[in-house]
Amino acid sequence: MAEEQYNIGLVLSGGGARGFAHLGLIQALNDEGIFPDIISGTSAGALAGVLYADGYTPREILHLMNSGSRLNFMRPAFPREGLLQIGGIINILKSSLRAKTFEELKIPLYVTATDLNNGKAEYFSKGSLIDPVIASASIPVLFQPVQINNIFYVDGGVLDNLPVRPIEKKCRFLIGSFVNPVGYMEKINGLINIAERTFMISMSKDIVEKSKKFNLFIAPPELRNFKILDPEKAEDLFDIGYKATREKLDNAFVKSILEA
Question: Which residue in 136, 155, 177, 204 is the catalytic one?
Fold first, then answer.
């Protein structure tokens, strides 16, 4: 086993707009004096992770990502590779990120994307930031793939929606935030709705086994009531993540982390 290099590792899943719950979780941790030493994220988790690793507080990220309507994040696209554009998120990252490379971040970060050409998960941790993060959040069919070094990438959740693998042997404590619970859905109609639902189901595979790798695992079941393409409930999602985390943080657990 590799020697542990970090005290606390934080793993953030994909889940679209539900990713605002990650910010509530991080805020709850910070309120108890718990700060991650390394982060691994997929899709929405990569977006939250990169901004937090860049030095923004959870509430600052909430404000940045909640500053516009749904239409500012996703507009219809005409190329054959995707139904929607992701330009709003690209603009937020380009205008807000102070670090331009992984090496410039204040906290080490791994970002997961799916390599379409070779059919494997890719864990980015070096070099340019924005393209891997956008690739990680590019839900297939809905968004266009991102080309990096002649390879096409889509959402990391296709193959690894809770990317503990890059850091699981490097940390003394592992905290996982999973924001993509799948429950019963009565009405499924329309191409975008079907694509969204199919992707949500695929992202939930292997979660039970992966959850066992964490010292603290947060997966609020009420998130199933929120769509992954609706950022307009950002405040509610933040509060759900915050409350769920506070409920799991008891004094003994907090003390065990802080006294390491």
Answer: 155
Measured distance CA(68)–CA(70) in Å, rounded: 7
Number of other residues whose CB lies within 10 A of the CB of residue 167 = 24
106-129 in b/e form (b: 16+ CB < 10 A) is ebbbbbbbbbbeeeebbbbbeeeb
43 assigned to active site: yes
Give the H/E segment covering residue 152: strand 151-155
How many whole angstroms separate alpha carbon 182 and alpha carbon 201? 7
Answer yes or no: are the C-beta atoms of 145 and 138 closer than 8 Å: yes
Residue of 13, 43, 138, 177 marked catalytic: 43
- Segment 196-219, tens digit of pLDDT: 666 566 666 677 788 899 999 999
The number of C-alpha atoms within 13 Å of 118 and in the hemisphere containing its C-beta is 8
User: pLDDT per residue over 7-35, tens digit each?
Assistant: 999 999 998 889 999 999 999 999 999 99
What tokens appear for 236 in the block?
A: 């509610």
The radius of gyration of the chain from alpha carbons, rounded to an integer in Å, stands at 17
The reply to whether 239 belongs to the active site is no
